[in-house]
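Q: Fold this one first, please.
A: Sequence and structure below.
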Amino acid sequence: DVPGSVEQIDFLHAHVIRHTADNTNAILRVGERGGGPLCVRCAYTIGAVFVDHAADRELVLEDIYCDFHHTRHWQMREGFMVPRAPQSPRNWYVYRNATPAVRKTVHAVSCTQFCGGCAQSGPDALVNVDLRARLVNSEHFPEAALAFRDSTVWIFGLKSEDQDTFLDFANSTVDIAGASFLQWRRVDDTPVVRARDSRYALDLYVWAPQRIALCETRGGRSSTVLTKDAPRSVRRGGLVLRPRSGRRVCDGTDHG
């Protein structure tokens, strides 16, 4: 546990590694409330969840590099950092709300593999979080790159690739101001974005041959926007997915 009296932890770009496949506990646990925000910065991590956010304390994560899951076959070679133990794709990511019944505020700047990839209903989705992030890269998860539930999310600069679904969120307010999604293969039956009973404004550059851009459910009624019919930004490949009002969501207005 990080004591509440600690205001900053700087790993000075050191390797912070767990050599087992245990995903029960993170490497760090913010378990005590403090007088102000806690800043954790400059770490290279692998093999585990990096931070469990348990206490009601504002958290800042800066320059946290969690290695990608698809590099495991390199990292587990003899003499490298991770032993040849079973490793679940859900073992490696930066942030988890360990007590989702308590609303958390977290700021992330320049982080890779920020949260676990899954559907918004899955165990590794971000739940009940106010997130403000800049320059985030999450990719090669088995399901969605980023998933949110009951959260407020603003991200400036997001990149992902090789996912069936890029974003999956429910009962959330999501504002993505600039994102790049690269899909290496043709996917016809899953959408780039899946939204349920949420407010959103998404400016995406999609390098993906996916047929469905958006699958949205509101009040039990579902609708689909095909990629060929989605609104376009100025550049080829750019999708602008917003409610019919066309306004961004961070101004607090109701988009119905």
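Q: Good. Now the second chain.
A: Here it is, same layout.
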Amino acid sequence: LLDIETRQPSAAGVDLVGKTISVVYLDDGTAEDSLFAANMSSSFVSRLEKEYFAGDSIITMFSLDKEPGISYRDKSRMVGLLMDTGADVVFLFDSPSFSGTGTAEGQVSGTVPFSVQLYVYDSMDSRDTVLQYSGSSMADLADMENTAKSVGNASGGKFTPRWRAEEIPFFLYDSQKWYETYFHVQDYEWQKAMDIWMDMLGTGDLEKKACIEYNIATACYLLGQYDLALEWVEMSATHFHLPYTASLKSMIEAKLGR
């Protein structure tokens, strides 16, 4: 058993591990508000990419003209956006609402209260509903760009994973190759460990083969690659009955909503 920091769902209750993501913001036709929404959404995207994709530019971002009277609490509209973007999860920022005029247009100095609505639909979430989040703050009219980026970054933080130390079983045999994988696992170097395990799969010892496949499944699970993890754990079960296989399979299936 190794103490491993495992990823848990975000504070917002949304699990984004292993999912494709799109971010959409509504453009109300007002230049200042549109720029605010774009900067906020871009910062939100950057925060999620940093946490889930090692900073790589993976998440797609779109703007959408705002139509009066349209409610994005309506699941069918969010599903439509999901299909248009081709993602597993879609985030939609409504245009910001500023106190007074409702927009930032024509206001040049001081601070003004504003609020933002964010809608989320996750096609892989068993709840099958649109989640809505609201936030409010004060905007510095002399520095709207940084205000927007700060709001986007803080909003993204609500959807970043939390971490919890858990005891995770891995199988280890008394040989150099196995010890190499052990040290890689301790350092969270999953790909290096998996490369060695993959090279060891040619063994004719079915118990060892099952242990290797179980270890690969566990690594895939910890990386959020749940479909692959399920394939490997099921393969392990066909070669030898191991004490932790059933519990690992249950954990994987729970993540897949089965």
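Q: Anything worth noting on the second one?
A: The first helix runs from residue 31 to 52.
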